[in-house]
């Protein structure tokens, strides 16, 4: 059965970070009580779009206030840090959470972030895969040496070592090329979201990638992140989040490569295409219809999520908190989802305790 979790970039448009962090932690605790099985955190820098420049810090805090939830990173931007430090920090998170870490990795895409950190968006794929090899090598070996283009070291011993013998390592797939790379690398885990393509296309690429990995003898674990709101019906769900989703999309469309006619670096061309496609007022109803978001009554939500599950997605992070949505509204939709949708994605034994 598809496992359900929560997701946070933790937008903070009023710069009251104490409130934003406090509300996020309260929502996560409440989510565990409601039966959500994971929480996923995204790294972002220098804008109201996201207030977690170091998701490992948030993950360590979450490890202390939860007992069962997996703590997922969706994603750590490897190119923005030293890969050895990333390996060290998340080894600590794995220990502090007693082995509940699920690690997701991406290469970054926002020019404002790269510029602020003094990092080029050129050749990010080459650097990314080198960092992947370093992190995985340090986690899985007593000592590890590496001689790459960007990093070199000899007989490095990671202290501390993670609890898990193998930390799940999810690769972010948001473009056709990234799905191909996952197959080439023989990935055991990957994550998707309908950001740069509509849901039907995401599911088609997901099925195709799953089948190609199965042909290589790999049974993949697939995670999806999806913005959503559950209400009496679709019209009410759209109304519930129309303002907040407009705030979110207007902000992200200012930040992606190619925004406002700027030149996108090589390998980021798809972002520029999306910027052109969204040139105009945000139509939340159209986003819902295309599957970029799930805004619906509970019965329709179950039906749409079952299609996602049938494509091979084994876990879902529900993006309830978007834009400047009020804390009470987030808690309310979490409760409604837990009452009316979550039971359909529990095992028979779990359903007995929920229904």
TrEMBL record:
Keyword Oxidoreductase on entry: yes
Species, as recorded: Niallia oryzisoli
UniProt-listed SUPFAM superfamilies: Bacterial luciferase-like
Name assigned to this protein: LLM class flavin-dependent oxidoreductase
InterPro entries documented for this protein: Bact_Lucif_Oxidored (IPR050766), Luciferase-like_dom (IPR011251), Luciferase-like_sf (IPR036661)
Domain Luciferase-like span(s) in chain numbering: 2-313
Keywords: Monooxygenase, Oxidoreductase
Keyword Oxidoreductase set for record: yes
Domain of life: Bacteria
E.C. no: 1.-.-.-
């Amino acid at each position: 059965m598809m496992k359900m979790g929560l997701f946070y970039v933790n937008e903070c448009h009023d710069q009251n970070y104490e409130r934003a962090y406090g509300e996020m932690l309260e929502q996560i605790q409440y989510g565990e009580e409601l039966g959500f099985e994971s929480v996923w955190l995204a790294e972002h820098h220098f804008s109201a779009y996201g207030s977690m420049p170091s998701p490992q810090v948030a993950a360590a805090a979450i490890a202390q206030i939860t007992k069962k939830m997996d703590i997922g990173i969706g994603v750590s931007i490897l190119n923005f840090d030293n890969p050895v430090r990333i390996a060290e920090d998340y080894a600590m998170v794995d220990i502090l959470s007693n082995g509940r870490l699920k690690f997701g990795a991406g290469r970054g895409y926002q020019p404002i972030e790269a510029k602020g950190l003094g990092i080029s968006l050129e050749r990010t794929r080459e650097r990314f895969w080198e960092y992947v090899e370093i992190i995985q090598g340090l986690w899985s070996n007593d000592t590890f040496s590496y001689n790459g283009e960007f990093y070199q070291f000899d007989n490095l011993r990671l202290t501390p070592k993670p609890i898990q013998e193998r930390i799940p390592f999810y690769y972010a797939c948001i473009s056709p090329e990234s799905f191909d790379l996952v197959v080439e690398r023989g990935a055991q885990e990957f994550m998707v979201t309908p950001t740069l393509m509509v849901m039907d296309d995401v599911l088609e690429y997901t099925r195709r990638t799953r089948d190609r990995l199965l042909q290589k003898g790999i049974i993949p674990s697939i995670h999806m992140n999806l913005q959503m709101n559950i209400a009496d019906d679709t019209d009410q769900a759209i109304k519930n989040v129309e303002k907040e989703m407009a705030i979110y999309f207007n902000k992200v469309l200012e930040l992606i490569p190619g925004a406002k006619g700027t030149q996108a670096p090589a390998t980021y061309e798809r972002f520029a295409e999306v910027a052109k496609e969204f040139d105009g007022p945000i139509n939340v109803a159209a986003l819902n219809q295309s599957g970029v978001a799930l805004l619906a009554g509970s019965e329709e939500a179950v039906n749409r999520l079952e299609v996602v599950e049938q494509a091979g997605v084994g876990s879902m992070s529900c993006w309830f908190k978007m834009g400047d949505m009020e804390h009470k509204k987030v808690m309310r939709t979490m409760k409604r989802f837990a009452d009316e949708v979550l039971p359909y994605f529990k095992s028979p034994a779990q359903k007995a305790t929920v229904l």
